[in-house]
């Protein structure tokens, strides 16, 4: 049963990774297009809003793509075991990129918010928690607490994948309810982050119980 749940989570994660990478590529294209030909976008659109602050958006989006790729590699058990030195090297890069992504997310929430106050609060919570988890991921591996480290890394990665779920919730709100991006952004961030937080915590607690049961045998 535990293996089935893990495989389901892996399958969902793969789909979310692909969707998030596609979204990131699309976002870069929109940023460039908004600079070259802003007239094709509606006034006060999120594309024009973020294009006015393109530098921080490029940092966030490009770092996010590197984050997804390095994180995906780290979570493949075969590669971790067979290429331990590469695993450690990419692990350091992953935590560095995670730091950049979280700081840029906090900066975007504070300096250039697009949605309502709920979006700002959600992004602040999201960015701050990822930053905290990144620090914990670093300190636990330095202390050679490998299992705790793996849990924090999984938190970082799976919670960050909530960005794909957030986009899907936003699309649903826009298409079905006819809401604007501004209207759905805050609620979408809060729901997506909360959903991923609950799922990963349930999975980690399940793994802890399994280890305790094995240790007691």
TrEMBL record:
Annotated InterPro entries: DUF2306_membrane (IPR018750)
Name of this protein: DUF2306 domain-containing protein
Pfam families, per database record: DUF2306 (PF10067)
Keywords of the record: Membrane, Transmembrane, Transmembrane helix
The keyword Transmembrane is assigned to this record: yes
Transmembrane stretches, start-end: 50-69, 89-111, 117-135, 156-179, 185-204
Protein species of origin: Spongiivirga citrea
UniProt superkingdom: Bacteria
Keyword Nucleus: no
């Amino acid at each position: 049963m535990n293996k089935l749940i893990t495989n389901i989570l892996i399958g969902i994660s793969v789909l979310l990774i692909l969707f998030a990478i596609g979204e990131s590529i699309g976002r870069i294209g929109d940023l460039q297009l908004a600079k070259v030909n802003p007239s094709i976008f509606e006034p006060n659109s999120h594309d024009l809003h973020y294009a006015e602050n393109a530098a921080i958006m490029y940092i966030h989006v490009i770092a996010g793509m590197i984050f997804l790729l390095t994180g995906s590699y780290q979570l493949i058990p075969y590669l971790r075991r067979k290429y331990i030195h590469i695993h450690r090297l990419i692990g350091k890069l992953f935590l560095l990129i995670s730091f950049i992504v979280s700081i840029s997310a906090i900066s975007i929430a504070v300096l250039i918010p697009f949605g309502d106050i709920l979006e700002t609060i959600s992004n602040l919570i999201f960015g701050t928690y990822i930053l905290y988890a990144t620090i914990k991921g670093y300190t636990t591996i330095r202390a050679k607490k490998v299992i705790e480290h793996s849990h924090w890394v999984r938190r970082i990665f799976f919670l960050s994948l909530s960005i794909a779920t957030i986009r899907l919730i936003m699309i649903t709100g826009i298409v079905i309810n006819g809401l604007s991006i501004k209207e759905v952004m805050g609620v979408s961030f809060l729901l997506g982050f909360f959903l991923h937080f609950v799922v990963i915590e349930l999975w980690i607690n399940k793994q802890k119980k399994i280890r305790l049961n094995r240790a007691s045998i």
